[in-house]
Amino acid sequence: MLADNREPKLIWAGKEPREPMGNWRLRERGNGDLGKVGLEAGAGEGNMLIWGDNRAALAALGGQWRGKVKCVYVDPPFNTGTSPGPYPDAMDHAGWLTMMRDRLELVRELMSDEGMIFIHLDDSEAAYLKVLSDEIFGRDNFLNQICWERSAVAGLGQGGKFLVNVTEYLLVYAKDYGKLGGQRPRMWVPFSKKTLRGYRRVMTTAGERELVDRFAAKSTGEPVEIYRHKDYEVGSISWAASRGAKEIAAEYEEKFDKVFRTFLVQRENSFQHDLLGRMEGGGLYSVDYVPSRGKKAGQQTTNYYLNKELVAWLADIAEVRDGAIIKNQRLGDFWTREMISNAARKEGAVSFDRSKKPEKLMQVIIEGCTEKGDWVLDPFAGSGTTGAVAHKLGRRWIMIEQGEHCGTHIWPRMKRVVDGSDGSGISKAVDWRGGGGFGCYEVVVAE
After folding, report:
1. Which of 307, 444, 431, 368 is nearest to 117 (CA)?
2. Which CATH code is given to the segment(s) 24-185+331-445?
3. Torsion of CA 361, 366, 367, 372, to 10 degrees
4. What does the alpha-carbon distance between residue 108 and residue 73 come to, in Å, rounded to a whole number?
5. pTM of this prediction exceeds 0.70
6. What number of other Cβ atoms are within 10 A of residue 385's Cβ?
7. Distance between CA 162 and CA 156 in Å, rounded?
8. CB 436 within 8 A of CB 418
9. For residue 414, what is the enclosing H or E element?
10. What pLDDT, in 10s, does the model give residues 190-212?
């Protein structure tokens, strides 16, 4: 059915009329058992764990937190038709859509104009929720449908009517795509041996350089200076079979800032080819200039060229962590098990059947769309992974959960995060040692 604006909308039994919202407020639980933990600045300033119905809690947050949340992660019951684990997962289709519609509309009001929402589902309801989310957030604000490879084909408990179900999905929307900043999800991943072997040359010394040409760039009018180097020395790192992996890794770490590879300049890049045309013969050259575009646009930059090929430094795309060379790369919309493992069983020292999501997944999401101090919201908090990761990354968080596991799982997990005893998940990677705190609240009828 088409609405008046010619956009398709879902129609289902029970969509209208809507159930009255009622008036709700949050009441702090105070100190003691299942009360606040650590030093809190007070309501509205510190992290919040809310025990109660998420629709009522989202309504209660509407006044003070409207327009403040930068990142929302929603991990609802997938409505698979079964009821494993802590959540009822066999609602009727219409009831599930109503439940999601009512909550997503409230969530949208809490999001900042630059905010983003990630809705985690499997294929049971993903197609329907995509259409419903287009209606709520606007089709133009749809960003991606991410496919996460949750598990391998071989394994216990794998389902699927025809093919083995090994993936889950994240529907990603912006509150207002026109106001979305330039930040995009990236993650650190290990270099493959094949890729790293391409970076085997070493600039032992760049020698001395002399100016050989100077002109004004057509695009910026800024000066471009070309230098020729003499007495330079270029070596290489040996990958001979007789050398052990640790020996090779140690040499890479020692010479890391000097390791490079070269590549041919793209035929379409007329500016770079103009530079190459001004270089006489082979050898080492460097060029000082201000790029007009790209990630270094407007910044004074020095590029190196060896035998008329552009030098690419390993240190520009990688770093050394714990003796391993890793690279920071942009993410696509297919996240593999190698990138983000689902080995979350022991994280947070809480058991949550198969519903617990890995901290690495939440780290990629949160770092991809927030900065330190931004608000992160999870209205289906489950085992508390979102809050644990947000806390370790220096973000402020709000988690809502109505099940008993709010007290048996989330509260003790977050207490261990605060006191620094939680060494699981991303703790080592981000050097988490504890700190901060959170307040605990319950949802009550407003008088």
Report:
1. 368
2. 3.40.50.150
3. -140
4. 12
5. yes
6. 29
7. 16
8. yes
9. helix 411-419
10. 788 888 999 999 999 999 999 99
Q: Are strands 167-174 and 111-121 parallel, antiparallel or unpaired?
A: antiparallel
Task: Return the sign of the alpha-carbon dihedral for residues 429, 430, 436, 438.
Answer: negative
Tokens for 374?
């931004």
Bridge partner residues of 438 (DSSP) = 37, 47
Q: What are the backbone angles phi and psi of residue 112, rounded to the nearest 5°?
A: -75, 165
Pairing label, strands 223-230, 284-289: antiparallel
The dihedral of CA 158, 160, 165, 171: what is its sign?
A: negative
13-50 per-position pLDDT tens digit = 888 888 888 899 999 887 667 778 886 544 445 899 99
Helices (H), 34-142: 54-61, 93-110, 126-137
pLDDT digits 0-9 by tens, 363-385: 999 998 999 999 999 999 999 99
Distances (CA, A) of 31 to 96, 109, 307: 36, 31, 69
CATH 3.40.50.150, the chain: domain bounds: 24-185+331-445
Judge residue 220's burial from the number of C-beta atoms within 10 Å of its C-beta, 0-12 exposed, 13-18 middle, 19 or more buried: middle
- 333/192: higher pLDDT: 333
**Is it the case that residue 165 has pLDDT exceeding 80?**
yes
402 neighbors 55 (Cβ within 8 angstroms): no
C-alpha to C-alpha distance for 9 and 134, rounded to whole angstroms: 8
Predicted confidence (pLDDT) per residue in 114-128, tens digit: 999 999 999 988 999
CB 314 within 8 A of CB 256: yes
CB atoms within 10 A of CB 50: 26
Say if CB 412 and CB 350 are below 8 A apart. yes
